[in-house]
Amino acid sequence: MKREKIACSCKNVNYGMILDAVKDGADTFDKVQEKTGCSTGCGKCRDFITTMIRDIQMFPEDYE
User: Fold this and answer.
1) Which three-class secondary structure state does DSSP give residue 7?
2) What is the largest CA-CA distance in the chain?
3) Where do the structural domains in the chain lie, given as residue ranges?
């Protein structure tokens, strides 16, 4: 995973920021949104980021 890749272009939130938020205890989309500001612009990234959060939780070894 490239940490620098953008997950939310409106708020310039990258994959690494999402990963760090989940690792710091943000276990829901709303908590990740609160920590990163993601999906507070157009909202098009919400489904993708929700899936990303689920994948990080289900397969943490893939995100080491």
Assistant:
1) strand
2) 31
3) 6-63
**Residue 6 zone, left/alpha/beta (φ > 0; ψ -120 to 50; rest):** beta
Residue whose entry in the numeric block shows the structure tokens 């500001």? 37
What class has domain 6-63? mainly alpha
**How far is residue 49's CA from residue 28's CA, in Å, rounded to a whole number?**
10
Q: What average pLDDT values come out for the chain (64 residues) when binned by 10 residues? A: 95 98 97 98 97 96 86
In angstroms, the Cα distances linking 64 to 33, 34, 41, 46, 56 are 21, 23, 29, 23, 10
Determine the residue type at 58.
Answer: M
Residue 45 corresponds to which tokens in the numbers above? 């990234």
